[in-house]
Amino acid sequence: MKRSRNCLMNDREGSPSRSFGLSSHAAGSVMPVRLGLAPYLATGLVIGVWFSAGCSRKAAAPGPAAPEVLVTTVVPKDVPRILERVATLDGFINANINAQVQGYIVSRDYQEGSVVKKGDPLFQIDPRPFEAALAQANGTLAKDQANQVKADADEKRAMDLFNKKVISDQERDTAIAAAGSTRANVEADAAAVKQAEINLGYTKIIAPIDGVTGFANNQVGDLVGPSTGPLTTMSQIDPIKAIVTAGEGPFTDFVSRHPDATERDAYIKKLDFDLILSSGDVYPKRGKFYALDRNLDTKTGSIRYYVTFPNPGNILRPGQFGKVRFVADMKKGAMVIPQEAVNELQGNYQVAVVDQDGKASLRPVKMGERIGALWEVTDGLKPGDKVIVQGWQKAREGSPVTVKDWTPPANQVASDGKPAQKNP
Questions:
Q1: Distance between CA atoms of 234 and 48, rounded to whole angstroms?
Q2: Around Cβ 198, how many Cβ atoms within 10 Å?
Q3: Residue 245: strand, helix, or coil
Q4: How confident is the model over 222-263, as pLDDT tens digits?
Q5: CA geometry: angle at 206 spanning 205 and 211, to 5°?
Q6: Alpha-carbon span 401 to 383, nearest angstrom
Q7: 331 near 374, Cβ under 8 Å?
Q8: What is the CA radius of gyration of the chain?
Q9: Which of 29, 85, 118, 417 keeps 20 to 30 A from 211, CA to CA?
Protein backbone atom coordinates (compact mmCIF):
# COMPACT_ATOMS: atom_id res chain seq x y z
CA MET A 1 0.00 0.00 0.00
CA LYS A 2 2.77 2.38 0.77
CA ARG A 3 4.28 1.85 -2.63
CA SER A 4 0.89 2.49 -4.33
CA ARG A 5 0.45 5.77 -2.51
CA ASN A 6 3.86 6.93 -3.60
CA CYS A 7 3.04 6.03 -7.17
CA LEU A 8 -0.21 7.98 -6.98
CA MET A 9 1.50 10.97 -5.36
CA ASN A 10 4.09 10.97 -8.09
CA ASP A 11 1.29 10.77 -10.62
CA ARG A 12 -0.41 13.85 -9.20
CA GLU A 13 2.76 15.85 -8.91
CA GLY A 14 3.71 15.06 -12.43
CA SER A 15 0.23 15.72 -13.89
CA PRO A 16 -0.15 17.91 -17.03
CA SER A 17 -2.15 20.57 -15.05
CA ARG A 18 0.90 21.21 -12.83
CA SER A 19 3.44 20.96 -15.62
CA PHE A 20 1.59 23.37 -17.67
CA GLY A 21 1.48 26.18 -14.79
CA LEU A 22 -2.23 27.04 -14.56
CA SER A 23 -1.93 29.14 -11.32
CA SER A 24 0.16 31.88 -12.97
CA HIS A 25 -2.64 33.13 -15.29
CA ALA A 26 -5.36 35.85 -14.59
CA ALA A 27 -8.87 34.90 -13.54
CA GLY A 28 -10.40 36.19 -16.66
CA SER A 29 -8.43 33.82 -18.82
CA VAL A 30 -8.89 30.76 -16.72
CA MET A 31 -11.95 29.39 -18.43
CA PRO A 32 -10.65 29.50 -21.98
CA VAL A 33 -7.41 27.95 -20.97
CA ARG A 34 -9.19 25.16 -19.12
CA LEU A 35 -11.45 24.47 -22.08
CA GLY A 36 -8.45 24.31 -24.36
CA LEU A 37 -6.60 21.92 -22.10
CA ALA A 38 -9.47 19.52 -21.50
CA PRO A 39 -8.24 16.88 -23.97
CA TYR A 40 -4.78 16.93 -22.38
CA LEU A 41 -6.22 16.56 -18.90
CA ALA A 42 -8.24 13.53 -19.97
CA THR A 43 -5.19 11.93 -21.52
CA GLY A 44 -3.15 12.61 -18.36
CA LEU A 45 -5.84 11.07 -16.22
CA VAL A 46 -5.77 7.85 -18.27
CA ILE A 47 -1.97 7.69 -18.14
CA GLY A 48 -2.00 8.28 -14.37
CA VAL A 49 -4.50 5.49 -13.81
CA TRP A 50 -2.41 3.10 -15.98
CA PHE A 51 0.78 3.87 -14.03
CA SER A 52 -1.07 3.51 -10.75
CA ALA A 53 -2.38 0.09 -11.74
CA GLY A 54 1.09 -0.99 -12.87
CA CYS A 55 2.61 0.01 -9.56
CA SER A 56 -0.06 -1.71 -7.50
CA ARG A 57 0.21 -5.14 -9.24
CA LYS A 58 3.30 -7.48 -9.48
CA ALA A 59 3.91 -10.07 -12.24
CA ALA A 60 3.48 -13.65 -10.94
CA ALA A 61 6.93 -15.39 -10.49
CA PRO A 62 7.38 -18.64 -12.47
CA GLY A 63 7.52 -21.85 -10.37
CA PRO A 64 10.78 -23.88 -10.01
CA ALA A 65 11.56 -26.31 -12.81
CA ALA A 66 11.17 -30.02 -12.09
CA PRO A 67 14.60 -31.58 -11.32
CA GLU A 68 16.10 -33.84 -13.94
CA VAL A 69 16.71 -37.48 -12.99
CA LEU A 70 18.10 -40.52 -14.83
CA VAL A 71 15.95 -43.64 -14.59
CA THR A 72 16.15 -47.28 -15.58
CA THR A 73 13.20 -49.53 -16.26
CA VAL A 74 13.05 -52.76 -14.28
CA VAL A 75 13.05 -55.73 -16.66
CA PRO A 76 13.61 -59.36 -15.58
CA LYS A 77 16.60 -60.76 -17.43
CA ASP A 78 19.27 -63.41 -17.35
CA VAL A 79 22.48 -61.91 -16.00
CA PRO A 80 25.86 -63.46 -15.27
CA ARG A 81 26.61 -63.92 -11.59
CA ILE A 82 30.02 -62.32 -11.49
CA LEU A 83 32.22 -62.79 -8.43
CA GLU A 84 35.28 -60.76 -7.50
CA ARG A 85 37.95 -61.67 -5.00
CA VAL A 86 41.06 -59.84 -3.81
CA ALA A 87 44.24 -61.57 -4.98
CA THR A 88 47.98 -61.39 -4.36
CA LEU A 89 50.42 -62.52 -7.02
CA ASP A 90 53.21 -64.92 -6.14
CA GLY A 91 55.73 -67.04 -7.98
CA PHE A 92 54.50 -70.40 -9.16
CA ILE A 93 57.65 -71.81 -7.53
CA ASN A 94 59.75 -69.78 -5.08
CA ALA A 95 63.22 -71.09 -4.29
CA ASN A 96 65.50 -69.85 -1.53
CA ILE A 97 69.12 -70.26 -2.58
CA ASN A 98 71.13 -71.37 0.46
CA ALA A 99 74.72 -72.39 1.03
CA GLN A 100 74.97 -76.09 1.89
CA VAL A 101 78.60 -75.92 3.05
CA GLN A 102 80.54 -73.30 4.95
CA GLY A 103 83.07 -71.23 3.10
CA TYR A 104 83.94 -67.87 1.56
CA ILE A 105 82.17 -66.62 -1.55
CA VAL A 106 84.73 -66.09 -4.32
CA SER A 107 82.36 -65.07 -7.15
CA ARG A 108 78.78 -64.12 -8.01
CA ASP A 109 78.05 -65.51 -11.45
CA TYR A 110 74.64 -64.03 -12.33
CA GLN A 111 73.13 -60.61 -12.96
CA GLU A 112 70.77 -59.67 -10.16
CA GLY A 113 67.16 -59.53 -11.32
CA SER A 114 67.88 -61.46 -14.51
CA VAL A 115 66.20 -64.55 -15.91
CA VAL A 116 68.27 -67.72 -15.51
CA LYS A 117 67.84 -71.31 -16.58
CA LYS A 118 67.97 -74.39 -14.41
CA GLY A 119 71.62 -75.33 -13.83
CA ASP A 120 73.07 -71.86 -14.45
CA PRO A 121 75.79 -70.88 -11.92
CA LEU A 122 74.83 -68.34 -9.27
CA PHE A 123 77.64 -68.31 -6.65
CA GLN A 124 81.01 -69.95 -6.18
CA ILE A 125 82.33 -70.82 -2.72
CA ASP A 126 86.09 -71.33 -2.30
CA PRO A 127 86.50 -75.01 -3.33
CA ARG A 128 90.11 -75.62 -2.15
CA PRO A 129 89.33 -76.96 1.36
CA PHE A 130 86.81 -79.37 -0.14
CA GLU A 131 89.17 -80.48 -2.87
CA ALA A 132 91.72 -81.33 -0.16
CA ALA A 133 89.10 -83.25 1.84
CA LEU A 134 88.18 -85.23 -1.27
CA ALA A 135 91.84 -86.09 -1.92
CA GLN A 136 92.24 -87.28 1.66
CA ALA A 137 89.13 -89.43 1.42
CA ASN A 138 90.40 -90.99 -1.79
CA GLY A 139 93.74 -91.77 -0.14
CA THR A 140 92.10 -93.49 2.80
CA LEU A 141 89.95 -95.51 0.42
CA ALA A 142 92.96 -96.62 -1.58
CA LYS A 143 94.81 -97.74 1.55
CA ASP A 144 91.85 -99.76 2.84
CA GLN A 145 91.31 -101.32 -0.56
CA ALA A 146 94.91 -102.59 -0.45
CA ASN A 147 94.34 -103.99 3.04
CA GLN A 148 91.20 -105.68 1.75
CA VAL A 149 93.18 -107.52 -0.92
CA LYS A 150 95.55 -108.94 1.71
CA ALA A 151 92.66 -109.76 4.10
CA ASP A 152 90.76 -111.58 1.34
CA ALA A 153 93.87 -113.63 0.52
CA ASP A 154 94.43 -114.47 4.21
CA GLU A 155 90.81 -115.54 4.50
CA LYS A 156 91.12 -117.85 1.50
CA ARG A 157 94.33 -119.51 2.82
CA ALA A 158 92.82 -119.93 6.26
CA MET A 159 89.82 -121.75 4.78
CA ASP A 160 92.09 -124.08 2.81
CA LEU A 161 94.23 -124.88 5.82
CA PHE A 162 91.17 -125.39 7.99
CA ASN A 163 89.71 -127.80 5.46
CA LYS A 164 93.01 -129.74 5.59
CA LYS A 165 92.79 -129.65 9.40
CA VAL A 166 96.00 -127.72 9.65
CA ILE A 167 94.66 -124.76 11.68
CA SER A 168 92.11 -124.51 14.42
CA ASP A 169 88.64 -123.10 14.33
CA GLN A 170 89.82 -119.99 16.16
CA GLU A 171 92.50 -119.21 13.58
CA ARG A 172 89.99 -119.63 10.79
CA ASP A 173 87.48 -117.30 12.50
CA THR A 174 90.18 -114.69 13.08
CA ALA A 175 91.04 -114.58 9.37
CA ILE A 176 87.35 -114.34 8.38
CA ALA A 177 86.76 -111.45 10.82
CA ALA A 178 89.81 -109.55 9.61
CA ALA A 179 88.63 -109.81 6.00
CA GLY A 180 85.12 -108.63 6.93
CA SER A 181 86.53 -105.64 8.83
CA THR A 182 88.63 -104.49 5.91
CA ARG A 183 85.63 -104.77 3.56
CA ALA A 184 83.61 -102.60 5.96
CA ASN A 185 86.41 -100.06 6.05
CA VAL A 186 86.44 -99.88 2.26
CA GLU A 187 82.65 -99.29 2.16
CA ALA A 188 82.98 -96.50 4.76
CA ASP A 189 85.84 -94.95 2.83
CA ALA A 190 83.79 -95.05 -0.38
CA ALA A 191 80.93 -93.25 1.40
CA ALA A 192 83.38 -90.63 2.70
CA VAL A 193 84.63 -90.08 -0.83
CA LYS A 194 81.06 -89.67 -2.05
CA GLN A 195 80.31 -87.13 0.70
CA ALA A 196 83.48 -85.21 -0.10
CA GLU A 197 82.44 -85.10 -3.77
CA ILE A 198 78.99 -83.80 -2.78
CA ASN A 199 80.49 -81.10 -0.56
CA LEU A 200 82.81 -80.06 -3.34
CA GLY A 201 79.82 -79.86 -5.67
CA TYR A 202 78.00 -77.64 -3.16
CA THR A 203 80.70 -75.01 -3.55
CA LYS A 204 79.23 -74.29 -6.97
CA ILE A 205 75.73 -72.98 -6.29
CA ILE A 206 73.43 -73.35 -9.32
CA ALA A 207 69.84 -72.39 -10.17
CA PRO A 208 67.41 -75.20 -9.23
CA ILE A 209 64.62 -73.88 -11.54
CA ASP A 210 64.01 -71.57 -14.47
CA GLY A 211 63.04 -68.17 -13.16
CA VAL A 212 63.87 -64.61 -12.18
CA THR A 213 66.57 -64.00 -9.62
CA GLY A 214 66.41 -61.51 -6.78
CA PHE A 215 69.04 -59.29 -5.26
CA ALA A 216 71.98 -61.01 -3.57
CA ASN A 217 72.01 -60.95 0.22
CA ASN A 218 75.73 -61.78 0.38
CA GLN A 219 78.66 -60.51 -1.62
CA VAL A 220 82.12 -61.77 -2.57
CA GLY A 221 84.26 -62.36 0.53
CA ASP A 222 81.38 -63.15 2.89
CA LEU A 223 81.62 -66.29 5.00
CA VAL A 224 78.43 -68.22 4.42
CA GLY A 225 77.03 -71.55 5.52
CA PRO A 226 73.83 -73.50 6.13
CA SER A 227 72.85 -71.23 9.05
CA THR A 228 73.56 -67.82 7.48
CA GLY A 229 70.24 -67.52 5.59
CA PRO A 230 69.41 -67.40 1.87
CA LEU A 231 72.01 -66.00 -0.48
CA THR A 232 69.19 -64.90 -2.78
CA THR A 233 65.69 -65.93 -3.87
CA MET A 234 64.41 -66.80 -7.30
CA SER A 235 60.91 -67.41 -8.60
CA GLN A 236 59.33 -69.16 -11.54
CA ILE A 237 56.77 -66.58 -12.71
CA ASP A 238 55.63 -67.98 -16.05
CA PRO A 239 53.03 -69.07 -15.23
CA ILE A 240 52.40 -66.91 -12.19
CA LYS A 241 49.86 -67.73 -9.54
CA ALA A 242 47.28 -65.51 -7.85
CA ILE A 243 46.53 -66.34 -4.23
CA VAL A 244 42.82 -65.76 -3.68
CA THR A 245 41.02 -65.81 -0.33
CA ALA A 246 37.34 -66.72 0.00
CA GLY A 247 35.26 -66.57 3.16
CA GLU A 248 33.67 -69.59 4.78
CA GLY A 249 30.19 -68.43 3.67
CA PRO A 250 31.01 -68.27 -0.06
CA PHE A 251 32.88 -71.55 0.20
CA THR A 252 29.91 -73.27 1.83
CA ASP A 253 27.59 -71.79 -0.80
CA PHE A 254 29.87 -73.09 -3.56
CA VAL A 255 29.90 -76.61 -2.14
CA SER A 256 26.10 -76.57 -1.72
CA ARG A 257 25.68 -75.54 -5.36
CA HIS A 258 28.03 -78.33 -6.48
CA PRO A 259 27.71 -81.18 -3.98
CA ASP A 260 29.07 -83.88 -6.30
CA ALA A 261 32.88 -83.95 -6.17
CA THR A 262 33.31 -85.09 -9.79
CA GLU A 263 30.96 -82.43 -11.13
CA ARG A 264 32.59 -79.82 -8.90
CA ASP A 265 36.06 -80.59 -10.25
CA ALA A 266 34.80 -80.45 -13.83
CA TYR A 267 33.05 -77.14 -13.14
CA ILE A 268 36.06 -75.32 -11.70
CA LYS A 269 38.30 -76.54 -14.53
CA LYS A 270 36.00 -74.83 -17.04
CA LEU A 271 36.11 -71.46 -15.30
CA ASP A 272 38.00 -68.59 -16.92
CA PHE A 273 39.41 -65.96 -14.60
CA ASP A 274 40.19 -62.32 -15.34
CA LEU A 275 42.86 -60.42 -13.45
CA ILE A 276 42.15 -56.77 -12.68
CA LEU A 277 45.36 -54.99 -11.78
CA SER A 278 45.61 -52.27 -9.13
CA SER A 279 45.60 -49.67 -11.92
CA GLY A 280 42.18 -50.86 -13.03
CA ASP A 281 43.52 -52.41 -16.24
CA VAL A 282 42.43 -55.91 -17.16
CA TYR A 283 45.32 -58.29 -17.80
CA PRO A 284 44.95 -59.60 -21.37
CA LYS A 285 45.61 -63.26 -20.51
CA ARG A 286 42.92 -65.32 -18.77
CA GLY A 287 43.70 -67.68 -15.93
CA LYS A 288 42.70 -71.16 -14.80
CA PHE A 289 41.98 -72.68 -11.41
CA TYR A 290 44.99 -74.55 -10.04
CA ALA A 291 44.44 -75.78 -6.47
CA LEU A 292 42.34 -75.38 -3.32
CA ASP A 293 43.94 -75.34 0.12
CA ARG A 294 43.30 -78.33 2.36
CA ASN A 295 41.83 -76.38 5.30
CA LEU A 296 40.25 -73.09 6.37
CA ASP A 297 42.22 -70.59 8.40
CA THR A 298 40.90 -70.86 11.95
CA LYS A 299 41.74 -67.21 12.69
CA THR A 300 40.05 -65.61 9.68
CA GLY A 301 37.54 -68.30 8.72
CA SER A 302 38.68 -68.17 5.10
CA ILE A 303 40.17 -70.58 2.60
CA ARG A 304 42.76 -69.99 -0.08
CA TYR A 305 42.92 -71.17 -3.66
CA TYR A 306 45.35 -70.62 -6.51
CA VAL A 307 44.67 -69.35 -10.02
CA THR A 308 47.48 -69.44 -12.59
CA PHE A 309 47.95 -66.91 -15.39
CA PRO A 310 50.31 -67.09 -18.37
CA ASN A 311 53.03 -64.48 -17.93
CA PRO A 312 55.14 -64.25 -21.10
CA GLY A 313 57.75 -61.54 -20.81
CA ASN A 314 57.53 -61.61 -17.01
CA ILE A 315 55.15 -58.62 -16.98
CA LEU A 316 53.59 -59.65 -13.67
CA ARG A 317 55.74 -59.94 -10.58
CA PRO A 318 55.28 -61.53 -7.15
CA GLY A 319 53.81 -59.18 -4.57
CA GLN A 320 51.43 -57.34 -6.90
CA PHE A 321 47.86 -56.85 -5.72
CA GLY A 322 44.73 -57.06 -7.80
CA LYS A 323 41.34 -58.71 -8.12
CA VAL A 324 40.31 -61.98 -9.68
CA ARG A 325 36.93 -61.89 -11.42
CA PHE A 326 34.97 -64.75 -12.95
CA VAL A 327 31.46 -65.66 -14.06
CA ALA A 328 30.16 -68.21 -11.57
CA ASP A 329 26.89 -68.96 -13.41
CA MET A 330 23.84 -67.30 -14.97
CA LYS A 331 21.05 -65.87 -12.83
CA LYS A 332 17.76 -66.59 -14.60
CA GLY A 333 15.01 -63.90 -14.65
CA ALA A 334 16.69 -61.67 -12.09
CA MET A 335 15.15 -58.30 -11.16
CA VAL A 336 18.32 -56.23 -11.07
CA ILE A 337 19.03 -52.51 -10.80
CA PRO A 338 22.30 -50.56 -10.59
CA GLN A 339 23.80 -50.58 -7.12
CA GLU A 340 23.99 -46.77 -7.08
CA ALA A 341 20.18 -46.60 -7.25
CA VAL A 342 19.83 -48.19 -3.80
CA ASN A 343 19.84 -46.07 -0.64
CA GLU A 344 20.75 -47.94 2.54
CA LEU A 345 19.76 -46.58 5.94
CA GLN A 346 20.34 -48.55 9.14
CA GLY A 347 20.06 -51.88 7.38
CA ASN A 348 16.95 -50.91 5.41
CA TYR A 349 16.94 -50.33 1.67
CA GLN A 350 14.98 -47.80 -0.39
CA VAL A 351 14.74 -46.82 -4.03
CA ALA A 352 13.13 -43.79 -5.65
CA VAL A 353 10.45 -44.67 -8.22
CA VAL A 354 8.78 -42.40 -10.79
CA ASP A 355 5.04 -43.10 -11.30
CA GLN A 356 2.93 -42.67 -14.44
CA ASP A 357 2.24 -39.01 -13.53
CA GLY A 358 5.97 -38.23 -13.47
CA LYS A 359 6.13 -37.88 -9.68
CA ALA A 360 8.83 -39.39 -7.48
CA SER A 361 8.24 -41.48 -4.40
CA LEU A 362 10.39 -43.59 -2.07
CA ARG A 363 9.74 -47.31 -1.89
CA PRO A 364 11.21 -49.86 0.56
CA VAL A 365 12.78 -52.90 -1.09
CA LYS A 366 14.53 -56.10 -0.14
CA MET A 367 17.86 -56.79 -1.76
CA GLY A 368 19.48 -60.07 -2.74
CA GLU A 369 22.83 -60.85 -4.31
CA ARG A 370 25.16 -58.31 -5.85
CA ILE A 371 25.89 -59.26 -9.45
CA GLY A 372 28.78 -57.23 -10.78
CA ALA A 373 27.65 -53.58 -10.85
CA LEU A 374 24.03 -54.65 -10.41
CA TRP A 375 21.99 -55.62 -7.35
CA GLU A 376 19.15 -58.10 -7.32
CA VAL A 377 15.83 -56.88 -5.87
CA THR A 378 13.88 -59.72 -4.27
CA ASP A 379 10.83 -57.71 -3.13
CA GLY A 380 9.38 -54.23 -3.60
CA LEU A 381 9.60 -53.76 -7.37
CA LYS A 382 7.73 -55.14 -10.34
CA PRO A 383 8.53 -55.25 -14.06
CA GLY A 384 8.10 -51.89 -15.73
CA ASP A 385 8.85 -49.75 -12.66
CA LYS A 386 11.06 -46.75 -13.38
CA VAL A 387 13.79 -46.48 -10.76
CA ILE A 388 15.87 -43.33 -10.36
CA VAL A 389 19.57 -44.15 -10.74
CA GLN A 390 21.06 -40.67 -10.62
CA GLY A 391 19.54 -37.49 -9.21
CA TRP A 392 17.31 -39.07 -6.56
CA GLN A 393 18.82 -36.68 -3.99
CA LYS A 394 17.09 -33.80 -5.81
CA ALA A 395 13.68 -35.47 -5.92
CA ARG A 396 11.07 -34.93 -3.21
CA GLU A 397 8.26 -37.21 -2.15
CA GLY A 398 5.32 -36.66 -4.50
CA SER A 399 7.04 -33.93 -6.51
CA PRO A 400 7.27 -34.00 -10.32
CA VAL A 401 10.59 -34.80 -11.98
CA THR A 402 11.98 -34.61 -15.49
CA VAL A 403 12.83 -38.14 -16.62
CA LYS A 404 15.70 -39.19 -18.87
CA ASP A 405 16.98 -42.70 -19.56
CA TRP A 406 20.08 -43.82 -17.69
CA THR A 407 22.95 -45.28 -19.76
CA PRO A 408 25.41 -47.71 -18.11
CA PRO A 409 29.02 -46.45 -18.02
CA ALA A 410 31.41 -47.77 -20.63
CA ASN A 411 33.56 -49.63 -18.10
CA GLN A 412 30.68 -51.65 -16.67
CA VAL A 413 30.86 -55.40 -17.15
CA ALA A 414 29.21 -56.51 -20.37
CA SER A 415 26.25 -58.86 -20.31
CA ASP A 416 28.35 -61.83 -21.35
CA GLY A 417 30.48 -61.53 -18.26
CA LYS A 418 33.62 -60.37 -20.06
CA PRO A 419 35.14 -57.17 -18.66
CA ALA A 420 35.35 -54.13 -20.89
CA GLN A 421 38.93 -53.40 -21.83
CA LYS A 422 40.27 -50.13 -20.54
CA ASN A 423 41.72 -47.85 -23.16
CA PRO A 424 45.44 -47.33 -22.82
A1: 100
A2: 13
A3: strand
A4: 999 999 999 999 999 999 999 999 999 889 989 998 999 999
A5: 135
A6: 21
A7: no
A8: 49
A9: 85
